[in-house]
Design the sequence.
């Protein structure tokens, strides 16, 4: 656990473990508080300043070492040579820190300093009192140190520290003004309006309420005839993230060079988004503010998206469209579209959502040539001639725009205006595949689109288990061994597959599980059942949501049947070795631990399609992953036969025996991937991670012709996408090429 | 022995060599004492199906039945709705044959073989191949699609190159589908050794093949054409379907190449139908060649099988210029019966059946130049016709045709009886 977030962790690593424990004494540690196991805060004084940061170590216990940082200030007047200090130390959580121990403070450059911990530790409340007493006029400095050492996230995890800070601030701050109005504009800013002296520029404030948090605020002033100078009307403009801290806010401590002032919140009412927007808009003409506040207010008061496309009617010679938007829930949005801006008047493009989601798109997009867009506007007198054609863009915008509601692009212009374009997100199922098909692999920038936009989308989607739901099951054939056949795509009867059982009938412990995707309707499912029945085969037909992939079929079969093993076989698989199904089962169940078994898989011309994968290498450019297979493409006769199984890094979904136990260890088979190849590779790597080996049985031969003619553009793009994702997720198992 | 002969058509409705051969066999077995023969033919449009059953009689007698089926996947030679064969199954149980002899699967589907194996597991299944349809997507002709050049061997890659709409994988799976079903057959029959060789090279077991020549109805040969004093054997005849594969364009081209001095008053008589079903380009070309040939060629159109002796009587030579391999065309047997020497392409079943220089002449397939030379030789060599005609072998009659089949049925059923449990 990162107990003290801002402590210089790197310093600990840079020092030699054998660094000597020094004997330069630290003056006197007058108070020590154990904030949490291993975390100490010390107060004291000495001659001169202690080291600002370094590594602390319990004397003679090298294992108990960790970073420290300190702040110091003059103890008394000009004649006082002593310096007060506060030191925060983070030792390992298991460190046995006890009163009276000696603690070495080892700076990166200088001699170690030896501190003796007091005879007893005090609690947070007493520590706050000691700190307030010791800080004197330098209370603001000590508060800043605490803010820097314990930022908001750390305070949220250390409630004792938050309470101590609150107590300390109550002791050192003077009431000077109040907060009368609280509000926030989502995606813009939060604000606290009241009165008091006007802080200058950016100022650190500590918000105390349900939580304690340090925030950088920008102040703006407005006249309040009812308030006497030097106080005035004040709006503290806070970053939008601070909106979460406003409910329950009790007081605000403003840190300045001269001290800490306190402004109590005198209202419990917080303005809503619309009211906040209207309030600030009305107040804006009366506000006097510096650039920081002005920028935040401008962001908050910019025109708001009303649900309509205003880019198409913008007076600027700019037009835009979004062709594809795919939402990866909780991860981000994939966008493909174009922005025609021949005069270069657009200065920024944001993707925003109604839940406050906001992310800049133009900083991370990949531009794509779109001559067609140039052509559309070529004869339009309202638009200059485009000198370039890179109007297209693709981007993966990370973030969580909830369910995509109210999602829109905001195009900002040089003149300060902006225009909006609604973005309708499609759910990832199906849309991701459409996005693949949209990539023109022959266009400049295609590889960059894959690397920077499309692959991150699939990586985000792949983290979710995505077992397809079984819509319906037809037939109740059950057996210990299931032959699982995924029937992807259009409903075509697997005649060759089913008819091979004419001369190799299923055993009494075998049953077929035919898994159809959602393109199969009731009629085609019925025809399939009749076809299986015609050949006298015990078969169940499962109809699943979405297309039926190999991994999806495995999951569906595992969920719908009680089979002990699953022989996943492509509908084009033709076993040419007698007893091939039994041989694969024997290989998978040969040892005490379940393992997967694949045959030698051949193309229709009897050349080798799969003969075990002995290794994978990551590459620095597309296709990102390359696999090593010794006999790939060889005539099958050159592959040694025999029943002995050989280890393989990954198997093939075209034909593979997967025991149920293995499937369960891997947490199911299916994840969202761009291609079946990617799905299979990822599955077998996960199996391996789960301790399930895959073996190749060279002597068992199965022909699995490739479907279709050659690789489509979408398939090529998908393979690159999956290669990129595999490189990112399976780095531990993939050798660097 | 109870034998069921299955054909893709019935000669009463569809005149084709395979239908004729199948029906001839049925009749021959029926007429052989001690045996019972049944005939099942596939029916399809324009024959209208009955409402309640795919089975129909069509007034062909008690032992000839039609199975109406339109659910047909031509690429895979498969029945798209095999459960529609249920009517066949119930009739099959009723007939309970010892032997089911398939002469074709077109229109019925390979599934019919599986159905027979399941419904009457003890029955022997015999399959006769009449062409290369299982091997070749191109109408079973083993001729390349682009320029009708000869194909010497099918493979998924080559067939896909010929038919780019079918990827190699589909071609492979088609082949496996067919072989899966053909593996159920006990014996294969072919009327030519050439065809056996092709199927064995395709992967079917040679041991299961038997050669049986087609048989013809016993009838007297047509007498030689009466010649006027000093006349020549100068009348050529073509008999068969008018199609690209039959090589009529080669023949018409060749006729035009024979010098006038040699041709004299010779003529070519074309007897054949089905022109209207040919591709437009072929019909146009055929018309142009016919017109260019002028008075040398006479086109008589289609004929009925029973007209053949009379039509053969009008010619001296039979020309068979097929640009595909053929198998064992009945026209060859008919020509031998009527002692009309043949001029044939030097390939496949034609080269096997007709002996060059003994009972006919060979010419280089698809070569009008070479055919023209052979025709010129036939017109110029005064003693040639007599020599070749005299050497023509006597074709098999239906009795021996049936006897040969019954012998192999005995063999198949005996072997089948040795299998402990029919599978």
Sequence:
């Amino acid at each position: 656990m990162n107990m003290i977030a801002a402590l210089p962790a790197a310093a600990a690593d840079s020092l030699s473990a054998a660094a000597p424990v020094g004997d330069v004494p630290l003056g006197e540690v007058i108070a020590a508080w154990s904030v949490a196991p291993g975390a100490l805060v010390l107060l004291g004084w000495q001659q001169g300043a202690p080291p600002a940061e370094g590594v602390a170590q319990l004397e003679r216990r090298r294992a108990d070492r960790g970073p420290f940082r300190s702040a110091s200030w003059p103890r008394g007047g000009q004649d006082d040579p002593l310096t007060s200090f506060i030191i925060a130390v983070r030792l390992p959580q298991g460190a046995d820190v006890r009163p009276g121990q000696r603690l070495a403070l080892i700076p990166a450059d200088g001699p170690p300093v030896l501190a003796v911990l007091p005879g007893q530790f005090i609690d947070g409340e007493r520590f706050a009192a000691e700190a307030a007493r010791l800080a004197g006029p330098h209370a603001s400095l000590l508060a800043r140190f605490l803010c820097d050492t314990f930022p908001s996230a750390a305070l949220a995890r250390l409630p004792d520290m938050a309470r101590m800070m609150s107590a300390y601030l109550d002791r050192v701050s003077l009431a000077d003004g109040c907060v009368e109005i609280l509000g926030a504009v989502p995606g813009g800013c939060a604000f606290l309006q009241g009165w008091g002296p006007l802080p200058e520029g950016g100022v650190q404030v500590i918000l105390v309420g349900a939580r304690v948090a340090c925030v950088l605020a920008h102040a703006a002033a407005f006249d309040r005839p009812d308030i006497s100078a030097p106080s005035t009307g004040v709006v503290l403009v806070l970053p939008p993230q601070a909106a979460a801290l406003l409910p329950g806010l009790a007081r605000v401590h403003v840190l300045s060079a001269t001290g800490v002032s306190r402004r109590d919140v005198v209202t419990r009412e917080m303005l809503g988004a619309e009211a906040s927007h209207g309030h600030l808009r009305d107040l804006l003409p009366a506000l006097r503010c510096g650039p920081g506040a002005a920028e935040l207010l401008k962001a908050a008061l910019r025109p708001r998206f009303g649900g309509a496309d205003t880019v198409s009617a913008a007076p600027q010679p700019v037009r835009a469209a979004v062709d594809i938007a795919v939402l990866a829930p909780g991860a981000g949005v994939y966008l493909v579209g174009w922005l025609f801006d021949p005069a270069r008047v657009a200065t920024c493009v944001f993707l925003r959502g109604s839940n406050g989601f906001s992310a800049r798109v133009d900083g991370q997009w990949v531009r794509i040539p779109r001559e067609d867009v140039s052509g559309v506007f070529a004869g339009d007198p309202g638009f200059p001639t485009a000198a370039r054609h890179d109007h297209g863009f693709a981007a993966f915008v990370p973030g969580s725009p909830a369910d995509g509601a109210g999602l829109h692009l905001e195009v900002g212009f040089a003149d300060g205006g902006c225009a909006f374009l609604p973005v309708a997100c499609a759910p990832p199922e199906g849309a991701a595949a459409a996005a693949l098909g949209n990539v023109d692999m022959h266009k400049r920038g295609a590889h960059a689109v894959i690397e920077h936009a499309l692959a991150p989308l699939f990586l985000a989607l792949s983290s979710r288990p995505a077992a397809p739901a079984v819509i319906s099951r037809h037939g109740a054939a059950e057996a210990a061994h299931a032959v699982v056949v995924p029937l992807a795509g259009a409903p075509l009867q697997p005649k060759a597959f089913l008819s091979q059982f004419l001369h190799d009938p299923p055993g009494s412990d075998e049953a077929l599980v035919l898994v159809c995707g959602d393109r199969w309707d009731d009629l085609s499912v019925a025809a399939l059942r009749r076809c299986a029945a015609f050949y006298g085969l015990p078969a169940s037909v499962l109809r699943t949501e979405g297309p039926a992939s190999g991994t999806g079929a495995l999951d569906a079969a595992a969920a719908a049947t009680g089979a002990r093993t699953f022989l996943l076989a492509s509908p084009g698989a033709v076993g040419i070795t007698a007893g091939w199904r039994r041989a694969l089962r024997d290989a998978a169940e040969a040892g005490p631990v379940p393992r997967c078994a694949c045959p030698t898989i051949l193309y229709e011309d009897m050349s080798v399609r799969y003969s075990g994968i002995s290794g994978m290498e990551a590459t620095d450019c597309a296709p990102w992953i390359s696999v090593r297979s010794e006999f790939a493409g060889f005539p099958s006769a050159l592959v040694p036969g025999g029943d002995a199984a050989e280890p393989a890094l990954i198997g093939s979904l075209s034909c593979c025996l997967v025991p149920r136990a293995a499937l369960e260890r891997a947490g199911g088979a299916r994840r969202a991937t761009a291609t079946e190849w990617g799905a299979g590779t990822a599955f077998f790597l996960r199996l391996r991670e789960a301790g399930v080996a895959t073996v190749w049985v060279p002597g068992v031969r199965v022909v699995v012709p490739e479907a279709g003619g050659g690789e489509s553009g979408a398939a090529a793009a998908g393979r690159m996408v999956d290669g990129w994702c595999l490189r990112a997720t399976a780095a531990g198992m993939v050798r660097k090429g | 022995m109870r034998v069921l002969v299955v054909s893709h058509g019935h000669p009463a409705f569809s005149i084709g060599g395979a239908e004729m051969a199948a029906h001839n066999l049925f009749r021959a077995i029926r007429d052989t004492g001690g045996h019972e023969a049944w005939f099942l033919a596939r029916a399809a449009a324009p024959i209208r199906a009955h409402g309640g059953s795919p089975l129909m009689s069509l007034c062909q007698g008690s032992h000839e039945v039609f199975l109406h089926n339109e659910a047909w996947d031509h690429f895979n030679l498969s029945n798209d709705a095999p459960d529609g064969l249920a009517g066949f199954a119930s009739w099959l149980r009723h007939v309970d044959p010892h032997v089911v002899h398939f002469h074709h699967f077109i229109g019925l589907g390979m599934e019919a073989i599986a159905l027979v194996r399941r419904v009457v597991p003890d029955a022997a299944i015999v399959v006769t191949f009449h062409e290369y349809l299982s091997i070749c997507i191109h109408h079973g002709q083993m001729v390349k699609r682009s320029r009708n050049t000869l194909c010497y061997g099918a493979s998924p890659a080559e067939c896909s190159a010929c038919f780019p709409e079918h990827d190699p994988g589909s071609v492979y799976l088609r082949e496996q589908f067919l072989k899966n079903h053909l593996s159920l057959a006990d014996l294969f029959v072919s009327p030519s050794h050439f065809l056996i060789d092709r199927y064995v090279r395709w992967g079917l077991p040679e041991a299961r093949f038997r050669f049986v020549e087609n048989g013809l109805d016993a009838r007297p040969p047509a007498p030689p054409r009466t010649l006027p004093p000093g006349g020549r054997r100068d009348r050529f005849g073509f008999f068969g379907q008018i199609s690209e594969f039959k090589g009529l364009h080669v023949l018409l081209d060749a006729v035009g190449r024979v010098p006038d001095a040699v041709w004299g008053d010779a003529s070519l008589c074309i007897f054949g139908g089905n022109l209207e079903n040919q591709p437009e380009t072929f019909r146009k070309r055929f018309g142009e060649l016919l017109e260019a040939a002028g008075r040398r060629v006479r086109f008589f159109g289609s004929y009925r099988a029973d007209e053949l002796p009379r039509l053969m009587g009008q010619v001296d030579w039979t020309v068979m210029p097929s640009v595909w391999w053929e198998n064992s065309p009945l026209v060859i047997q008919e020509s031998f019966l009527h002692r009309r020497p043949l001029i044939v392409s030097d390939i496949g079943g034609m080269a096997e059946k007709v002996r060059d220089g003994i009972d006919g002449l060979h010419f280089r397939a698809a070569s009008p130049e070479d055919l023209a030379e052979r025709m010129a030789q036939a017109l110029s060599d005064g003693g040639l016709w007599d020599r070749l005609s005299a050497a023509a072998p006597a074709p098999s009659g239906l009795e021996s045709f049936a006897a040969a089949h019954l012998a192999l049925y005995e063999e198949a059923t005996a072997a089948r009886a040795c299998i402990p449990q029919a599978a």
In short: Residues 1-22 of chain A have pLDDT under 50 and may be disordered.
